[in-house]
Design a protein that fits this description.
By secondary structure, this protein is α/β, with parallel strands linked by helices. It has a domain at 93-293: Uracil-DNA glycosylase-like domain (Uracil-DNA Glycosylase, subunit E, 3-Layer(aba) Sandwich). 45% of the residues lie in helices and 10% in strands. The protein has a six-stranded mixed beta sheet with strand order 1-3-2-4-6-5. β5 (248-252) and β6 form a beta hairpin. α3 runs antiparallel to α4 and α3 runs parallel beside α8. The protein is elongated.
């Protein structure tokens, strides 16, 4: 077996990247441990000790000294009270208020980025490598919004990185747009561990930051990519196939902004047959911005 000390720094970095892409977030042991074998050994030891112990069913238990008192047990209010609290059932109101205050205090995208990087009220930040903020420029008045950072985004520190980002670049170029001419961002700024879906409280904590990004960027048209993103802004439970391809208005801080949804590039890599649907959406987007911004 190859030891970590036998690897070069480049080989170690490649190995860590491989684990990150596979969804591994924590390395707990240097060597593999067979927990099933450990359990069987412990159970066999307990059974052997129990068999060797003589039975004394008729022997009365020793009297407890009069001076010793057993502390009174505290009554449990409910079985759920004894369980550790993990994700709250409702949004953490204090964290949401802190996020809203931090977002509303920003008067520019650069100030908002600083506020987001300093914000520690969301648990997603604890497991993420990077805080992913908008990249590009708001001057084009076009905004592309995805769901949450991927492993590539988290590693490189920018939205829409890796293969999905390369495909998005080709999609944009096909309708005459470049990455540095528009603003790219995500609804959630931190990658959830294992690429899981963010919880409702995490979504509510992150909501003020994405809404403030949109308000400060003042886009004339927004392209929403992916099922989660479309549901988030349209307030619907339909899938992306039922929400895509039609212009709607999204309300952000009392402003109505035209938006259209389409499939995320990662979905197109998984199911290339849907590229024809995305191309139709892109043509609709192109025609709209040509009339409004041309």
């Amino acid at each position: 077996m190859i030891s970590a000390s036998d690897l070069t720094p480049a080989e170690l970095a490649a190995l860590l990247h491989f684990h990150a892409d596979a969804g591994v977030d924590w390395l707990l042991e240097d060597e593999p441990v067979d927990r099933f074998a450990e359990f069987e050994a412990m159970r066999a030891a307990r059974q052997g000790a129990r068999a060797a112990q003589p039975r004394t069913e008729t022997q009365a238990p020793a009297a407890r000294p009069q001076t010793e008192r057993r502390p009174a047990a505290k009554p449990a209010s409910s079985p759920a009270a004894a369980l550790p609290r993990t994700t709250p059932a409702i949004p953490d109101e204090q964290a949401v208020e802190q996020a809203r205050f931090a977002a509303e205090s920003a008067r520019s995208l650069s100030e908002l980025k600083t506020a987001l990087e300093a914000f520690n009220g969301c648990n997603l930040k604890n497991s993420a490598r990077s805080t992913i903020f908008a990249s590009g420029t708001p001057e084009g008045r076009i905004m592309v919004i995805g769901p949450m950072p991927s492993a590539d985004d988290d590693r490189e520190g920018v939205p829409f990185a890796g293969r999905a980002g390369q495909l998005l670049d080709r999609m944009l170029a096909a309708i005459g747009l470049q990455r540095d001419e528009i603003l790219l961002t995500n609804v959630i700024p931190w990658r959830p561990p294992g690429n899981r879906a963010p919880s409702p409280p995490e979504i509510e904590i992150c909501r003020p930051f994405i809404e403030r990004q949109i308000a400060l960027a003042e886009p004339k048209a927004v392209l929403l990519l992916g099922n989660f993103t479309a549901r988030h802004f349209f307030g619907s439970t339909e899938t992306i196939h039922g929400l895509r391809g039609e212009w709607r208005e999204i309300s952000v801080l009392s402003r109505a902004i035209p938006a259209i949804a389409s499939l995320h590039p990662q979905e197109l890599l998984t199911a290339p047959i849907n590229k024809r649907l995305a191309w139709s959406d892109l043509l609709t987007f192109k025609n709209y911005i040509a009339g409004k911004l041309g």
